[in-house]
């Protein structure tokens, strides 16, 4: 199945728009695991098992694994996802962006080494830095467009004088992704939940693309505003929560607490959809 086919199937099966991001920080693990980077797999696998029927994607963030020399644990974790959550796509959050020959190696890393279904990319080196990922049949790629961090204004919100209509940079990226760059039909955009008006603008410019929307939960994005701005019946949104789910337990069973938080988020997003 292509990435988008998997995404639509998981959406229908789990009745959800929620993605759980896996950003494992051993210093925040529960007492029995705290500070032990060799237990990253155990922690993340428990989160996957607890939330597998509530999500439409999992999004492991590669830096949180690589910083702890846990790349092998990431490989094992994605293999575990295939067993525990069959049909739920895996988005490798790597934010890669490099020239074509190097991008081709990064694509092999994402899709062949780790077995991800999609990857996040920086588009700022142009289409030749994106094309090698789209050469992998059926694999998805999400381009950074209007990110949730305050510093996104430094570049993404600047107007382009030489582009017709003086579009802002993020608007131009949305147009390119909707149009000539989407050569395999599996391209999407990353837009932060902290900017609902920009989500609405991106949706207008890219009406059919999937939007990966981080920023609810710990970053303070509003579920209702996010869904109203981005959700369309024929264009999926993938609303990501990481820390608010992973570290939901003040004490007690962390997996139970993670499931409880994920269930609340899933249901709040679904309720927002009915108000949209």
Textual characterization of the structure:
Helices cover 42% and strands 14% of the residues. By secondary structure, it is of the alpha/beta class. It has one domain (3-275): Aldolase class I (TIM Barrel), CATH 3.20.20. It has an eight-stranded parallel sheet. The longest helix has 22 residues, at 254-275. The model has no long low-confidence stretch (mean pLDDT 93).
Entry keywords:
alpha/beta, 11 helices, single chain
Number of strands: 8
Q: What class would the helix/strand composition place it in?
A: alpha/beta
User: How many structural domains does the protein architecture include?
Assistant: 1
Strand fraction: 5-15%
What is the CATH H-level superfamily?
A: Aldolase class I
Described by strand count, sense and barrel closure, the largest sheet is: 8 strands, parallel
Shape: globular
Q: What helical percentage do the residues reach?
A: 40-55%
Q: Look up the CATH topology.
A: TIM Barrel
> Any idea of the CATH class?
Alpha Beta
User: Roughly how many Å apart are the termini?
Assistant: 30 Å
The helix/strand order is HEHEHHEHEHEHEHEHEHH
Instruction: Please give the CATH architecture.
Output: Alpha-Beta Barrel
The overall pLDDT average reads 93
Low-confidence stretches: none
Counted by DSSP, the helix tally is: 11
| Radius of gyration from the alpha-carbon trace, in angstroms | 18 Å
Strand order of the largest sheet: 2-1-8-7-6-5-4-3
